[in-house]
Amino acid sequence: xxxxxxxxxxxxxxxxxxxxxxxxxxxxxxxxxxxxxxxxxxxxxxxxxxxxxxxxxxxxxxxxxxxxxxxxxxxxxxxxxxxxxxxxxxxxxxxxxxxxxxxxxxxxxxxxxxxxxxxxxxxxxxxxxxxxxxxxxxxxxxxxxxxxxxxxxxxxxxxxxxxxxxxxxxxxxxxxxxxxxxxxxxxxxxxxxxxxxxxxxxxxxxxxxxxxxxxxxxxxxxxxxxxxxxxxxxxxxxxxxxxxxxxxxxxxxxxxxxxxxxxxxxxxxxxxxxxxxxxxxxxxxxxxxxxxxxxxxxxxxxxxxxxxxxxxxxxxxxxxxxxxxxxxxxxxxxxxxxxxxxxxxxxxxxxxxxxxxxxxxxxxxxxxxxxxxxxxxxxxxxxxxxxxxxxxxxxxxxxxxxxxxxxxxxxxxxxxx
Length: 417
Description:
By secondary structure, this protein is an alpha+beta fold. The protein contains 14 helices and 21 strands. 33% of the residues lie in helices and 23% in strands.
């Protein structure tokens, strides 16, 4: 069997007419982080906001298709005249207070026939894929680039993109979280071919967008007669760059009786953990956690009117890449056996709230009396090791920040007809 190579290429996308629809007014975060209040705010900002395509009016995919057709007819959305790559830079301040810049490009990426070229690392839920597939089958459009990483330690691709970019960005906006995003077109065919050749020998790690990727695969398999279904739009960024950062996602668990909370430290010791006090707040707790080597599992336990506890497990050396992830250890050794929250229940329960901010988790615990679990983020290399092993993490194990924006460019498919 011939070796399969990564296929990254330019495409002729649809973009909002910037003279009539400033980018800030029409972009949106991915569907899975938008609340109903967020959606209403985005629609109030502009009736042409892309949120109406990714979360359709009254939940009907047909409404999204109707709007897409209308917006193309009235030139709200304008097709590119030539195939483009889109160089993108995002300057942001993360939950840790550090300012960084993440560079990359939006491009069309061929969907592989086998495993090993594009690597997932997170579980997906069939009902979500089915919902996204209904929308894709109706609209034949991809307004949402998924975030993927490649390995380029010398930054050759970013350098090529900077050289080949048009002088002025076609998008320049600051979003609701303070991220300053700029996007340039790259139309030089020789440079596009150079980037294609560099990436042909690499593989991609899916950082964010596992359900959308699974949806694209399902659509391709359902409509083999649609050649355009063999690719999807992605935001590619260098996994070796300091601008790519993962933050932890902390857990706040409700429904834990007071007596269970009181005996939880003792049960953790019985389960093989080392438990010790870590100051009087989450700042000191996170500082203590950061000192623990990554070959030791660790998490923080916070309860109302109790000092935070540092919980460590120095017995994961030699274990599988998946077992080295703190969120997995928490699930398999604590949430499941000690709090009656096995993985299949966690996937659908309303008992767990998530936040990227430890101080927010502590505030929620103080307000509600729930139990909080403070986690470290895995490194990009740890995530890649899990993906290469063929294993997948639970949902909410990684938080690549910032979320990529939808509506910067829209890719359309031909459809099965």
